[in-house]
Amino acid sequence: MATCADRSANQTVYNLYVRERLDECLSLIDVMESAGTLTEYAIFIKGLIFRRQGKIAQSYSLFEQVVELNPNNASYLKQMARSATLLGLHSQAIQLYGRLEELKLDDWESWYHKGSCLTFVQDYDAAREAFLRANDIERHLPTYLKLGKLCVIVEDYQYAIKVYTEALGFAPLDPGLLRTVGLLKLRLGETQEAFQLLGRSLVYDKRAPRTLLAAASVMQDSGDIDAALAKYRAVAAQRPQSAQLWSNIGLCFLSQDQPFVALQCLRRARYLAPFAWIIAYNQGLVHVSLGHPLAAYHQLRAAAALKPDYAPIFGLMGVVLADLGDADNCLAAFDRALEFDPDSAEIRLNKTIALFRLGRDSAGRAAWAGLQSRWGGESDLGGSPEVSKAAKQIAKYISINRQ
Amino acid sequence: MTPFLDAFYDPIENLDAISSCIESADLYGDGDHRLLIASRNRTLRVYRGAKVVAEHEILGTPSGVVSFRLEGVDKSRSLAIAIAAGTAIFVYKPVKGVLKPHSKFCLPPFQPTEQEQDIWRRLVGGGLTMLEGCQELVDLRNSGSSISPQGESMLTAPQHATDTTTMFDAVPDGQTLDNSRRGIVTAHPDGIARSVPVITAITVLPATINEHEPLGQIIVATEGGDVYLLGPSCRETDIHYKLKSVPIRLHVTGTRAVAFRVTVPCRDRAIYSITEQGISANVIRAEADIVDVVRIRNKIFVATADSTLSVYSARGRREAQYKTAAPIVAIEHFDAASVEGFLLCLASGEVRMFRGAEPIATMQLANPVKGIRMVPFARESHCLVSVTDTGALDIKILHRSADLGSMGSIVESDPQDVPLGIIDDTTALRSAYTREKDLEAASKMYFGFQTDLLQLKLAALSTRVKARKQTEDTMAGVKPQVGLRTTIEGFGPSFLVRVHVSARKPLRGLSLCTVCHGPDGMATARPPLAIKDPLLPISVLLPGIDTVLEVRVAVGSGDGVVGMLVFTVSDRAGKVLGRSELLTPEIDEFVAQM
Q1: Looking at beta carbons, which residues of chain B come within 8 Å of A232?
Q2: If you classify domain A309-403 with CATH, what class do you get?
Q3: Which of A122, A354, B85, B571 has a CA that sits 20 to 30 A from residue B349's CA?
């Protein structure tokens, strides 16, 4: 004989759910179901657990069930809409949020999630309106963050900065927010301000890996290798599986004239992310600097297979092939590089040097003449002192050989 | 360093109690505090020292246990224990050295609406089928009325053969009424049953700050969102508050005599404050489901299910937020040695002790905590009692000389000091350096490599030609009845080859045979690839439906020569109906193609 719903089990179900004892919680719900004492709330929690376990479609049908039983319950509608969003049913989710609006609860969360759905369907104006409405009802940091992100998507950086500034007034000590603003400033080229914000973020959360990585890369770019390495050490303790991190560490060691250690780090990075072309390219760079043309060639070949449209890879491969004496493939590599970046003085200069090294002096002179007519002189080849120095050397070589 | 001393640990106590179900009381006024633990298996155990001195059965799943002063008929007040279990509060009193049941109190019952009563009357009277009754209940709920728990059971019951029947119809043969809607109606022949709200939380509001008489009136919260302050005799309700959600815990600060504040975290992530004047308008909204809260002066510490500890001001402004390394399973307030703080328990078994918001101690337990309390026990004024996930009981004593007020904050090691852990093994790299130091040797190796590569490509091409020719020879004059298509998955050394087999007409009793040939197109003793299942049966092939067979192959001892996988589908007589081949090398040499 069926009994009345045992609502005393609801509290146990809740306690188990929030304490992450999901299996125990599910078995209790199953017991309730088999005993005929299943409650609406237990079905709801079962839906939440299924969603956390990745069974989104099942969770959606469970929420559908509870919404059918109690269509005016805002929590049920909200969670059903969340599952719909995760299933990619954005328009259905937006409809459900519309039903929540009809309940006139003035709930910021439903507007916030509606805004997220509208962002997915690329209705950015409506999404912005939804986020603003959410903030009108109750100000919350996630809303600011989503609104800022939306502004970045539509490339309205000034408004994004305005939103984030307002958010900083609301939560001035939030490390995640400080990091987000810092990264945006970094993207806008305001390095100094970005670095300050990242530093502030680290004051409140000195272990945040993303912040540490961003701050360290700024330090690395500005040449403060020791400080960057200290920050990378802190990240490595938490995220030892990050390929990007080991790649950056490798380049730090290369800057410190420790190429063997750099190669060790890059090999680890490559092991962690075998399809990351930048790591293969970096490995190639280190091998070139060490004078290992064959090893460099293999790394660059792998990088080229993964990223077949990046000019510097082919430019460097041309240099390496010149070292190895493969003239035809060397010139083909330079031509491919110039196909992708015809305005690169560096690649043209390297090609000129390679032609001279391969004994094709007439072609080399013609290339040098072309280079001069295009840029006007060896000192204006792009501003890099190494390039200018190489250009001067080649000019000197040509003048000596002419005599 | 921990300020606690290990006192007692029993791993086989088989306890299942959350923090609110752990309490201690000086039951007999002898200064020897007994420990009371109400377990989820409906038992109340009383511990004196390490010994269980009494065990009582409880008529419901306990949601909390408290000790308080019960007012008698003659207005005298004596110590009692109240256990909230299911829909009732069971009061126990110590009598002549034994804890005995004293009274039971139930909260005011749920009053069903007239419309709902009418629906139930019609259901019992046979005027409605079970499904019609459910529909009317849903309509009633949609109109904004709340329905009784019995009505909710009716709606959540699973589908049953008797759902389309009325009470007048006969139950179909072979059908039982277990877990059915009709079963619920049959169980309540008088219509709607009197239903009492389930209690979700219980606490005590101190009467005064007098240490000798610290215990006062009981406050309970229910599944319906009601909060009741009971009278001193625990026989009637004194004040009633109605919340919009279901409370999960009740935390009291202040006294009944002066002023009090009850902090009420709820299931909908809201945290309400109740004072004598009513429910405060400042409602805190947490960002995730609430595990529990602790209030210390004007700060509210909220532990949420997303492994976060948030600090809110009394006005509801979030002041700080900390992420924990593992999910939070419990947070419990303590007031010991004139220091107020809380204990934060993580699912990893770590227990952190905070003075205000400052961590002062940490300890690692063998198992995660389920419930924890800092209570007086035996003759010790501060004992840390914890019930673990495995059912163990762990009691630790706060060191009598522990000065929690002057303990320094835990200084975490600087993550920047952790060494990178790069293994100093540069032998291979140095040998490469030595090998390539001579540019001429590097050049030789490069051209040697290119020659080998070219030879491999030529061998592959030649094998491809042979394979095509072989297929043409095998299938000469035969119209292939079966189509084969192959896809490869995996990065090696093991691969999964999926063979999609399709037919133009229905075929039965076929088999897929996979053979690995050498570069000359002939079977070899040392094939380049090892095949796990060379013969796979295909029971039936239907037109328009692809049958997918999985062949696992691994790199064998072929010494790097080009090989060929040949797939043939044949019938029982051995007649080949379809054939396909796959070459072993996947060569994509960029430089040679330039």
Answers
A1: 420
A2: mainly alpha
A3: B85
